[in-house]
Here is the input.
Amino acid sequence: MDLFAIDLDFEPSEAKTQREKRLEAKVTFDPKDWTPRIQDFGHLSKDGVVLGDPVYIQEQSKFAAEEQYYLCNYQLAKTFALQAMQKPTDTSLEYHRLTGGEVHELEDVVRRSEKKLQHSGA
Here is the structure.
């Protein structure tokens, strides 16, 4: 049953709290069975990005930069972010270029990493 159909499934005489409990029971899931898609092997920030495939080097570098930043490896995060922001030299990779928003995210990772590195060195 899709969520739209569930939302339309109600009795006019039903109290709101009863309806919410009934609908919640239909859509709940066990958190132990769920993992974020980013953790599935072969997927990164975009659908279909395959680990080890040179066509997806920018996406892989972006993922690595974000991962290293949150692991507090700021120098590595900065290195991967700069690598991800490089323009591809192979014209066949043009399709896989990062969006403007992703580039801004990477610039932010570089800026924050530099700030963390300065504070740790001071």
About this structure: Residues 36-47 have pLDDT under 50 and may be disordered. Helices lie at 3-8, 16-27, 57-70, 74-85, 100-121. The chain has five helices and no strands.
